[in-house]
Amino acid sequence: MSKPVEFYFDFGSPTAYLAHCKLNDLAKQYGAELVYEPMLLGAVHKATNNVPPISVPAKGRYMLVQDLPRFIQRYGVEFKMNSHFPINTLKLMRGCYAAKQLGCFDVYVDVMFRALWAKGLNLGDDAIWKETLSSAGLDADAIIALSTDEAIKAELKENTEKAVKKGCFGAPTMFIDDQMYFGQDRLDFVEEQLAER
Fold first, then answer.
1. Could you give the C-alpha distances from 40 to 11, 146, 171, in angstroms and in order?
2. Which residues cross the membrane (predicted)?
């Protein structure tokens, strides 16, 4: 089996959603272990003096109007630009650690990504977040309650700090051994490394 692919992500990134879709395909194809590492992208940007692409008008327009559609077509994924973007994902990312404790992490991650970027839902609205979880068969009350626990908050903070120490400055970021790959547009290099194993 291939060595693990660490995937640092935040639900608020549409390119992290594309990476989520494609990495799952690559993991199955090459028998790789995909390790999801939730982090808070805003905190990573702040720690590294980085800014999101959307805050640079020309770059934001290029990404949304030209670059994203190219990769959506290439990957053949369902995508709907979220009209509520950008969304504060703090509670959603804390929810990852709650879902881990409750044994539903994989389902939670996929549901959140697809709700934001395939359905265009406003998960910044607590009622919509709760309904989305419940509709997917998840224990919404348990996830929401646990996500406010101080230990859960600390886990997200610690993993975000770990991401920065490893060299992350944005999302998505992947690591295989000591090699770092930033951006879903670098997945061809990830695939090359997996194919060599």
1. 9, 18, 9
2. none
**What domains does the chain contain, in order, with CATH numbers?**
5-51+79-188 (3.40.30.10)
Question: Phi, psi (5° rounding) for residue 174?
Answer: -120, 145
List the structure tokens of 92.
């959603």
The Cα-based distances of 78 to 28, 58, 70, 75 in angstroms read: 19, 25, 13, 9
Count of residues for the chain?
197
pTM (global) more than 0.70: yes
Band the pLDDT of 54: cuts 50, 70, 90. confident
Cβ(20)–Cβ(144) below 8 Å: no
Contact of 52 with 86, CB cutoff 8 Å: yes
Residues 6+ apart with CB under 8 A from 173: 7, 8, 163, 167, 180, 181, 182
The pLDDT tens digits for 149-192 are 999 999 999 999 999 999 999 999 999 999 999 999 999 999 99
